[in-house]
UniProtKB/TrEMBL annotation:
Listed name of the protein: Acyltransferase 3 domain-containing protein
Organism the protein comes from: Lojkania enalia
InterPro entries named in the record: Acyl_transf_3_dom, Acyltransferase_3
Transmembrane stretches, start-end: 12-31, 51-72, 104-124, 173-195, 207-235, 247-267, 334-354, 375-398
Domain Acyltransferase, residue spans: 7-358
Amino acid sequence: MAPRDANWIDGLRGIASFMVVSGHLCTAFVPWLHSPAPDPKAAPHLFQLPFFRLVVGGRAAVALFFLITGYVNSIGPIAKARAGNTDAAFHGIARSALARSGRLILPTMTATFLTWFMANTNAYHMTKHVDSTWIRQGWHRQEPTLWMALKSLFKAEVQTWTIGWDEYDGTQWTLHLFLEGSMLVYTTMFATVMVRPKARFLVYAVLYLYFWQLGEGLAIGALKGLNIVFGMFVAELHNHYKDSATSVLPTPVPALMIVLGMFMSGYPQDAQQNAWWSHRMQIFMHQITVEKSDARRYWDHLGASTVLLGIFFSRNARRVLTSPIFNFVGRVSFPVYLMHNTLIKSVLTWMIYLPSAMNPPRNEKGEQMDLQRGSTVHIFIAIIVFYYVLYRLAALWIQYLEPIFAKMVNAATSWAYGAGSPAANSDPMLRNGVIKDHKTVLPA
């Protein structure tokens, strides 16, 4: 795999992708951990407690992806605008807005094709009979004819970007929101390139308040809008403080921000009333948001944003996130996101349920019952193997498929710009598939 400079934002994206996978594994096998306690009077399990529950919770990770998208896609235009180079800023925005769709859609279409192929070669047959509700809901039948299979593939590829639902992989529901979020960044940057930084801060504040009170579902307000806007705000801070950002605050302050953000990010997904701490958080959030708002998404946003801000001001946190292991998981974060559900429904399901499938349990009437998972040790070993396979395949994806996607996007954008145009010829970095100043940030 080609080397890439270590960047703390890459490491953070890698952590977010790992959290998404672990959250889905929790939903599949131990969904009761999504509540803070079995009931209001029962003692919580270790991984139901604050901080520990982040190991099996992935909701705040989705907020992190939107924050990173807002941060990275705005950092270049802001730098050029502050330097007074508005022409370069407009050029960069136009260039990125055109390329962004391809860099997001092509890999997603490939992942959908792979899971479609798995379903239509009956690789998900066992999924239909397991005792995990979440895995069973991801089952898709093998279409009876090739024509019907091709129609279902076309439908899935289109609906991922229209209604936000892929019937072959439900975890892709966020991807059209990432594309919309990127366009929100480009639109905001386009409108504010020529204004002073103080005016741009005011624009962020107005947008933030708008999305906070919107309250029209998680996609519009607390999940997408607030995180995208706050990401742009942190990018503005980056261009303001530059290399001195890690020395602005006393050392303990960023650490406390990270800890506080982790606590807020641990707001439980289900049954918040089962623990006093989460119930208090629920009541407080409902008091400061509009009626029928999803308090979970607001806490996810506040927690992830506070963590991001703490890391931004922390030299030690940045040093950790630029270590080789975090640099690796960051590089492969997007294919990990795209492939993990497919591998859960196939490789992991096969490993966990194969012993039961070899001798399927039946009731008194002779009807087959749900397949039963193996022992805890069996599941633990299977999950370790699953993670190895997932990250190994993701590394191969980056090595072999990502360059193909880059060439396709570059060819399409070069054609769109036209031969001899400044956009097509003046930027060798674009022709080589690398976007300067602000990397294309994709969900893990």
